[in-house]
Amino acid sequence: MKSFGIVGGLGPMATAYLLELIVDMTDAKTDQEHLDVIVFNRPSVPDRTAYILDPTKPSPVPPMVDMARKLEALGVCAIGTPCVTAHSFHDALQSSVHVPFINMVQETAAYLKNAGCRKAGIMATTGTVHTGLFQKALSAAGVLYALPDDAMQAHVMSLIYDCVKAGKPADMDKFRAVSAALRSAGCDAIILGCTELSIIKRDNDIGSGYLDALEVLARAAVLTCGKQLKPAYNSLLK
């Protein structure tokens, strides 16, 4: 029986939601037909954006590598993490283990390309934007992109840190303002490129034209580990 490993706690709610998505996406009729998943939930991992913006702060890489290696030792066939910003360190994480460490950013860009997206708006942490993770992946896939301006990026960070990470309801006025700005820039899809934004999508009616990177990761986990996907999840961009 293949199992999937989650380098979790980044953040805790996103980790729980990733497991929920994997269960929900798997086309299973009994408990035994579901995917075995091993979750290493370590919210004490230092903040990824803080380290990217100021490398003198504690690095999140050593504890993430430690989790990945322990998951590999437990026999997982693939690993993922429900933190987009942590993909800044993907090369270090992948080189630390011998099983695939699914790259959620590249999987998202590939999905948009296959879906025929022409230009994608990027909603992500300032750390993710700073490293150019989605910009590079989208450019490599031949998809144009747009970023929020400084004021709208401040809204995105408030949604992530002041709302979801703080356990408070999302400020949907801010969410809609950022979305409208990206649509005005010609985007035919908007990437929810932070897993806290995935929680906003889960808990609110945000409308159509969004691609949730966490859903992309869950879908990849199910398929990589050899399970069948429910037909309802053949399309994630609705």
Description:
The chain is an alpha/beta fold and 238 residues long. The protein is 48% helix and 13% strand. The chain contains eleven helices and seven strands. Strands 5-4-6-7 form a four-stranded parallel β-sheet, sandwiched between helices. Strands 2-1-3 form a three-stranded parallel β-sheet, sandwiched between helices. Strand 6, helix 10 and strand 7 form a beta-alpha-beta unit. Helix 1 crosses helix 11 and helix 5 runs parallel beside helix 7. It is globular. It starts with a strand and ends in a 14-residue tail after the last helix. 45% of the residues are buried. The model has no long low-confidence stretch (mean pLDDT 96).
Compact description:
The protein has 238 residues and is an alpha/beta fold. It has helices at 12-25, 48-53, 61-73, 90-95, 104-114, 126-131, 133-141, 150-164, 172-184, 195-203, 213-224, and strands at 3-8, 36-41, 78-80, 119-123, 144-146, 189-192, 210-212.
Question: Which descriptors would you attach to this protein?
Answer:
7 strands, 238 residues, three-stranded parallel β-sheet
